Amino acid sequence: MHADKYFCFDTYTDNQQKEAGDTLIHTFIKKNWPICQTRYFYFHGTIDGNPSPSTTAIFKKHQLEAEKETTMPLFNSLAPQTFRPVISNTWADFDLSKIVPEGATGAVFHLINADIGATRKVGLRMKGSTDFYGGGMKRHTHTWGIVGLDDNLMCQGLCESLAQQHFLLVGYTGEYCTFFVNGTDIKPALKIAWVDTDLSTLCPGGIAAIIEFATHLDDNDLMGARMHGSTDDRHPGSKHIWMVVGLDANGHLDLWDQDWPTGADAFNLIGYITAGATFYTNADNISVAADGTYHDRSLIGYLANPVIAFIELDSGANAEDYAIRKNAWTADIYYDIDNHNFAIVHPNTPNALIDVKLSHVTNRLFLLGIG
Fold first, then answer.
1. How far apart are CA 76 and CA 171, in angstroms?
2. Looking at the domain assignment, is residue 227 inside a domain?
3. d(CA 74, CA 347)
4. What is the pLDDT of residues 167-180, one digit of tens each?
5. Which residue range(s) make up the domain with 242?
6. Cβ distance 225 to 236 under 8 Å?
7. Which of 140, 278, 295, 334 could bond 288 through an S-S bridge, CB–CB 3.0 to 4.6 Å?
8. How far apart are the first and last CA of the chain?
9. H helical segments located in the chain
10. CA distance 212 to 195
11. Is the pLDDT confidence value at 357 over 70?
């Protein structure tokens, strides 16, 4: 009997490491591990894409106590990473699963149209969404886009020019940001007036709304958004922008749609924020000297060690350049505001500095919120 072979049949799960490719660091995440349960592991890899003939020994791990609940910050900064569709004018999958951790709810992209002569289509949406707003980025402009991620940490992007347009992934959002698979058009019926818009049902517990505003490719529409109760009165022309706008205590904001010179496709509500930031009823002007050089702008007076700043930009004309960057970065992304724009920027840690460069005194920056 002692020479007989014994076999044990049990369930198993293959668990890929989080890092992409060949690495010296290997991170494996095991979720929903009950207390007092013992699990056994062994590790194997590939060589030139083929299974390795050898594996490690079997390791044993006993779960003694529940993992402590941790909350992912509202926003988490990343060194910029480039994404781009393979085919123009076609939605392409952006797989972020090797870059952002499980639990990430959304992604923030710095969008650039470097074409000096043409407006170009651009789009962002959650993987699985049927939203199709490919409105234009005016020639020689840049902006920030925010988009939800599906359960597999994927979203989709669209652009018209593979050579001239860029999607720079600069960060991701945590559990305080909720995104919808498909957005809801909240475009006001009343025109040329600030319209009180109740989002309390669509955004339960919300302190800010995330809105994608879009027109047709070359069209422009005078529009604006502000917290309800604000006296801010900015509604210059816009094409395709993503806005994060504060809600009042009752979940209301005000929208302005002039429907001129052309109408908007949508004020597409794609998500909302429930905590982790403070939004102001009236935004503060945080502009710097407009001399075409970088100036430090400290936000330490608003919040110690902020991780994100929501900024609205207003200018007197299309061809007025601006740059906003984390103080520690050196990239010089200096393109047009295109009248009306929004930025989502991570201040430097721990001194809360951002670098700002403006070409004209009519370029103005307004701090909508900080977290």
1. 5
2. yes
3. 14
4. 999 999 999 999 99
5. 75-370
6. no
7. 295
8. 68
9. none
10. 17
11. yes
